[in-house]
Structures are given as structure tokens and as C-alpha cells.
Fold this protein.
Amino acid sequence: MDTEPIAVALKFGFLAVLYLFLLWVARSAWRELRTTTTPAPEATGIHPIGPGGRAAPTDAWLVATSGGGLEAGERFDLFGGISIGRSSDADVRIEDRFASGVHARVYSRGANYYVEDMNSTNGTFLNGGRLNGEAKLNDLDEVRIGNTEFRFELDVPDS
Amino acid sequence: MSARNRELLALIPVAILVTGGFTAVFIVESSQIGDLSLIYGGYFLAVCVGIHLFIRVRLPYADPYLFPLCALLAAIGLVMLFRINDELALKQASIFVGGAVLLALTILFVRDYHVLQRYRYLIATAGILLLMAPRLPGIGSQVNGAYLGINLGPFSFQPAEVAKICIVIFLASYLAEKRELLTVAARRIAGLTIPPIKHFGPLLVVWGATMIMLVYIRDLGSSLMFFGAFLALLYVATQRLSYVIAGLALFFVGATLIASHVSHVQDRVDIWQHTFDKNPCHLTKQEINAGEDCGVGQIQQSLFAQADGGLFGQGLGESLLKLPGPFAPHCEQPFPDCGSILPAPHTDEIYALIVSELGLFGGAGVIVIYALVAARGFKAAVMARDGFSKLLAAGLSAVFALQAFVIIGGVVKLIPLTGVTLPFVSFGGSSVIANMILLGLLLMISNDARRPLPPPREEGPVVGGLPA
């Protein structure tokens, strides 16, 4: 029996299985990195670790109020910080023609939360005024990006 | 799909690769398809499923890809060893089983790896003693001029493999406690944060120790591996790039100085720089007549073997490893030690053999496996909840990746070639066993890191964490 073609097939088969496997592992790793808004039960999302080595207390949320292809009332846990924008790199992805790829971010420093415009084209608005750089967020502040509006909520009582 | 089911699923392609690889080698050697390779594949899968079940019971939240990736490395190693000599593959398989048992014992006995912090000075002393052992009279042994192995009766052992784990545990626990001291009051110059000179003290101490080690065991590769792991840990602990830059500069200067004084290290650098020159390491006529080549043949043959592989390789079992028929050298010792065109194909040069048989794509695939293992380790570090775990996970991943870098870099002539093993792939008991322990620790850390948090309690005191 001529085994030559089998040997060649096995060589390419070996490489193919190897690469498919690596692709699968890399893809799952990549996905895990992106699932930040809802921590999976097996705790796969990466969460920024705050002082004390554990995730910053999740006592703050961005709540979608209108636009952006988000359901009004959808809550985004801030953990240590999240980015908002149109690209898939952003933690909170919005469908908004006036939003930049990574438009703005919200993060905690010390005990406070801040919103920062990431050099977006159309700017970020805080309570109706255009944001210059970063600003501290107070409870129930309104953040607007393009046509998408969020409300910042701090220490909301159990709902 | 739960993490553990993912792990089980990931073992299937690994078993397919073992079976396929053995079949290919078997076909080339005997021109027939036997069921032997299926049996090998089955055994391999059985051992892996055994470890998987153990992890499922003891570490239900551990990273699902760490173990399959390491099993994949072992699988490729077994296929390559089977291709060289089936006895080697058999031995390596039993070492793999032994390593698996040791992995289980590590997880059973250490239970909570945080206790290692308490014994850090003991562990550091053990690590240093292990590193020094190869030069002790009686048990020490010199291979190609470097002091890396010890002989205990019939067994030989590479203590540096175990020492690397000890040193990383020590550094992680030390830095977890002292890192604040290293991050205080710093000036920014040209985008770099430069701490005051006095804070470079620990860096200088470890650098000095590395240099002494370089003189003492005369192995550039393992010195680079240890020092690199230290720099990685220092960077993770302090976020100061200036430490890393200063450290690398110091290492480079120190290694250059030492290379010009220690002849063995100098030889290694010479044959790396002038691989295809005539007599690159200035041997005398007598030495050349006696058949010495100060190891230049190894790197030459390694490069030829890899070039021979091309993009997709010669095929499993089909690279030219032994001269055929009348040209085959006659020797008493069994095959890998003698008669191989590629020196040490089962240990140092196994990567060259992989590239020769599976080509650039196969070689790149192996590098990707190491990168993914390191990525999973760093992920565990990011997710870990206390400073020691973070540093330990980062350090173990770094030392693992650096070991692969040092030997692959040597084989492809990126850096001077030195005799460390390719983790999980190379033949060798100490290497497999030490890396199994390392894997066990990483699994334990990731299990802790991924365990869902219990419902939040009262705000406890803030324990030294790491910057995100």
C-alpha cells in the first residue's frame, strides 16, 4: 500500500488541528476579555481591581435613559471604570452616528467617579454643558453622547 | 458551557494530535498503519482525563485552558520523541504520568498556596542551594561547560528547574510586602518615572546575585531567565518601567563584562556571533584534531535543520536526522546520544526538529501555545484578589515564558544558545516534573481568582493590593 499520500495528509491535518485548536482557545480568551458588563457566573470577565485588591465596590451605575440602541433603564455597572463608544472596543457599545469609537470613559478615583471625554469629535455633555477634559460625577448627573443619554446613579437603594 | 466542560472538550483535539502524530511517524518508519498509535492516543487521553477529573473535584473554578495547553505541549513533545526513538517516548510518557501524580500531590498538600509566604526564606534558601548543587564535588556534573545538572546514582537532575519555582515564590512574597517602599517618591524624566537612587538597592542586589550565578554555573540562558522573571515581577509590583530598563541595561553590561572573562560564556557568545566562521572560538590545532568544536556544530545543524523544514515542514518522521545506510556512524550508545546529525535532538534542539518536520507553521504554532499559556497565567494574575497571588501568578507565567524564549531564541540564533529545556516538550524528568508543579500552582491561583465572591461582608481593613 502506498502510504505517501496518507503521510502528507497527516502532516497538514496535524497543522490544521493544531491551528484550529489554538484559534479556538485564543477566541474564547478574547471573548472573555470583552464580556465586562455582566460578570458570568464562572467569573470570566476581567474587572479592574480597586484598592484593597478586590473589585471596587459596585455602588455606581450608568443608566441608559434614551437613544444609542439601548433599552431605557438598562444599567451598566461601573466597577472601577468603563468606556463608552461606537466601536467594539468600548465596554458600553452604543449605536449612535454622533459618537466616536471610544467616546468617553467613566472611572473611579479615590471615593469619587469621574467622566472624561476621550477626544471625541462631537464632545460629551454633562448636564447640558460641554465637557472639557474630565469632571466629577454627582448622583443623578446627566451624561449625553451624541443622541444617547445616560444618568449617573450612586448608591441607589435596592430596587 | 462550564469551565470544566470546556477543559474536557479541549483535551479531545490534543488526543487527536497525539494519535495523528504517532500514526504519521509510524507510517514513515514501517510503511503501514497500525493500531499502535491509537493505543498511544488512548493512553494519553486517559491520563489527561484523569488529571482533568482531579481538577474538576479539587479546583472547580480553575482556568479551563491552562491544562489542555500544557497537555498539547506534552503531546507535541511525545510525538517528536517517538520520532527520534520510541524508547525515549515511552520513558517520557511515564515521566508525564509521574508528573501528573506530582501535580495532584502539589494541589493536595499545599492546599492553600498562601502558606508558602510564611516559609519564604526557607524556600529561597532551598532554591539557592539547588542552584549551587551542580558545582558541588561528587554530585555535580558539567555538560558542555555549563554546570546545570547533578547526578544522584542512576538519576540525573537539573536543579535549576525546581529552583526557578522557589525563587519566584520568594520574590513574589517579598515584593508583595515591600512593594510600597519601591514605589514612593519618584520624579518623572522624559516620560519615565525614576525613583530615587537608593530604591534601586534591591535591583542591584538581585543583579549582583545573577552575575555571581552566571560566573558560577556559567549558563547565560538560565541567568537571563531568572533575572528576567525578577524584572517582570518588579514591574508588576511597582509599574515602574525605569526599573526594567535599568535592569536590562545592567544585565547587558554585566553579561558582556563577564563573557570576556569566563571562557565558556565567551565561547557561547562567539559561536553565536560568528556561527559560520572558521574556528569561531579560537581552538588550537590539537583541540580541533581531537574533534572538539566548542558546540558550534550544534547551532549550525540547528539552522540547517530548520531551513530544511520550509513553510510546512518535511512531514512527521521525514526529516533527515540520521545518515542512512553506509554513512551511519557506528557507536555503542543508543541513538539520540550518538549518530544524530542534529546534536541533542531530544532536549536542547527539539524545537529545531519540530521546525524541520512541521515547518515554520508548526514552529510558530508552538510559540503561540507558549504565548497562550503565559496569557492565561497573566489573566489569573489580573483576576487574583491579593498581591501575593497576583505576583506569584505573574512570576510563574513569566519564568515559564522566559524559559521557552531562552531556548527557542537560542535555537533560532536570536540569542546565544544555552542548555535549558523547552518546557513540557523536551525530554527530561526534572523539567516535566518542575513544570507540572508550576502548572499546579498556577491552577490553584486561578481557581482562587475565579471563585465567585461570597456575598459582601463589612468593609474589612485594606490589605496591600496591586495597582490595576
Notes: Residues 127 and 166 of chain B are 5 Å apart (CA to CA). Chain B touches chain A through 59 residues (CB under 8 Å).
